[in-house]
Amino acid sequence: MKLHTLLKALPFAKVREQSLNPEISTIEQDTRKVKQGTLFICIEGSNHDGHRFAKEAEEKGAVAVVARKPIDVSVPVVYVQDTKRAMAILAAAFYQYPSEKLQIIGITGTNGKTSVSHMIEHIFQANGKSSGLIGTLYTKYHSKKHETKNTTPDSITLQQTFAEMVDQNVEVVSMEVSSHALVQGRVWGTEFDVAVFTNLTQDHLDYHGTMEAYRFAKGLLFSQLGNSYSEKKRKFAVLNADDEASDYFKMMTGVHIFTYGIDREADIQATNIRFFNKGTSFTLRTPKGKWEVKIPLLGKFNVYNSLAAISAAFVSGLSMDGIVRSFANFPGVPGRFELVDAGQSFAVVVDYAHTPDSLENVLKTVRSTAKGRVFVVVGCGGDRDRLKRPIMAQIACEYATDPIFTSDNPRSEDPLHILKEMEDGVKGAHYTVIPDRKEAIQWAVSAASKDDIILIAGKGHETYQIIGDQMIDFDDRLVAKEAIQNNL
Ligand SMILES: CC(=O)N[C@H]1[C@@H](OP(=O)(O)OP(=O)(O)OC[C@H]2O[C@@H](n3ccc(=O)[nH]c3=O)[C@H](O)[C@@H]2O)O[C@H](CO)[C@@H](O)[C@@H]1O[C@H](C)C(=O)N[C@@H](C)C(=O)N[C@H](CCC(=O)O)C(=O)O
Ligand SMILES: Nc1ncnc2c1ncn2[C@@H]1O[C@H](COP(=O)(O)OP(=O)(O)OP(=O)(O)O)[C@@H](O)[C@H]1O
Ligand SMILES: N[C@H](CCC[C@H](N)C(=O)O)C(=O)O
Ligand SMILES: [Mg+2]
């Protein structure tokens, strides 16, 4: 596409070197990805000012640059007031507005986004629709997985991914939308059809500052749903009736509202919930009648997740019979309540709980099934919300008989300092501190016996540990398996 054709999307931009009209082969915001023919966009981020990389981009083959302030390059420069907004607009235009050609379901909330997005993808697939997934674990379509850097990709990567999905005849996209992405405009230019809210509890206060600002960030997904009731563009906000933040999100959008819940009256409601060893059953009350639902997952929180997924599929037009039937063979999600079985006499569960609320939920579930002791191996990530550390430690001590505090991803922080901040929340309680995560897991495995349960929390599917600026191989599931085998 020629630069001037692309720039029709930015009617008020000022272009230096108007006479040049290079062919644009790709758009990038990161010099590490620039190649011949790139339009490079300078972004002022939290670590770097992208304007400082403009020269390097030119040397690597950029044929034009989008900037907010003067830069010293000889290729055409497109001056705009807000390069991040320009990036989203240009990305959507360059890839020919792919989100308009897809049915897009966005999921936001503190916990459950990855779980719900997998359920939605599974339901559509099982009901004969070609569905794709974008989230923490990967981008996936046609059973092929592609690595992702962020839960929600930057606007260029996102629009490019949508375009690939359109090319590959994907019909429905189930995607996680993080609060960071909403604040940073990564989903500007994405036309969502359905926005789903799971829940709002404490996390990411390092980034958002207050719970109000965090809630506002999540609310942007609902305010960005558009303002049309036309049948072709009918939009839905799927809200959790049992979470009071839903009342706030209702005020942020004019679209149709569909609610789900357990405790409060809602459009669809789970009643008569029964928990078994390997799954959960409930009666689903809907506007179209009642259904018996069986999910191969444990915990009340997974009833909420399944209600969110059922609602999204239902408002998108799938039949309730088809939706309910598809849950029977839902395969679960890597690192979410994943059992490690190496022939041991006790249960080992690896789970991605890394917030106070998720840890409490998963520990309650573990405790309700445990006949013996409950071990929890848990740490808190470095360079992330510090306020959640003492609370997570308190929860570990409240619900587990044997809490073991260890390291998660310390990143640039001193692991012992993070542990100290956890311990500040549990003065006088009974717990063990083993800073090395592998040793902590080995210790729990050697101390557990028949009927006990070990919960290894916080890292779930992660296959690495970030210590300083090093990324070392580390997979809780493999470390646990090896420890069990060495102990048999
Ligand atoms: C704090 C934060 O959110 N940072 C995100 C942000 O980066 P940034 O704008 O601050 O980037 P920066 O490093 O200051 O660089 C500024 C500009 O210079 C460019 N640059 C930089 C270096 C270089 O050599 N060349 C170059 O061109 C960069 O590409 C960028 O355009 O924008 C980037 C592109 O979208 C993101 O990848 C990056 O996520 C970082 C890696 C991150 O860790 N983010 C986490 C906190 C996050 O976003 N998490 C949520 C999930 C949270 C949850 O729900 O649990 C997520 O969606 O992943
Ligand atoms: N609805 C829920 N309410 C509370 N906790 C939940 C819920 N669903 C899942 N969890 C817990 O939270 C953990 C993370 O779940 P999941 O990965 O689905 O959330 P997420 O919102 O995608 O997280 P992230 O923001 O890190 O991507 C799970 O391992 C489980 O312990
Ligand atoms: N998306 C979350 C993941 C946290 C996972 C946990 N293992 C940690 O490193 O804190 C974040 O980046 O805050
Ligand atoms: Mg996720």
UniProtKB/TrEMBL annotation:
Signal peptide: none annotated. It comes from Fervidibacillus albus. Residues 24-95 form the Mur ligase N-terminal catalytic domain. Residues 335-460 form the Mur ligase C-terminal domain. ATP binds at residues 109-115. Meso-2,6-diaminopimelate binds at residues 384, 408-411, 458, 462. Keywords: ATP-binding, Cell cycle, Cell division, Cell shape, Cell wall biogenesis/degradation, Cytoplasm, Ligase, Magnesium, Nucleotide-binding, Peptidoglycan synthesis. Residues 107-313 form the Mur ligase central domain. The modification N6-carboxylysine is found at residue 218. One of its GO terms (biological process) is cell wall organization. This is UDP-N-acetylmuramoyl-L-alanyl-D-glutamate--2,6-diaminopimelate ligase. Its cofactor is Mg(2+). Pfam families: Mur_ligase, Mur_ligase_C, Mur_ligase_M. SUPFAM superfamilies: MurD-like peptide ligases, catalytic domain, MurD-like peptide ligases, peptide-binding domain, MurE/MurF N-terminal domain. It is found in: Cytoplasm. Its EC number is 6.3.2.13. GO terms for cellular component: cytoplasm.
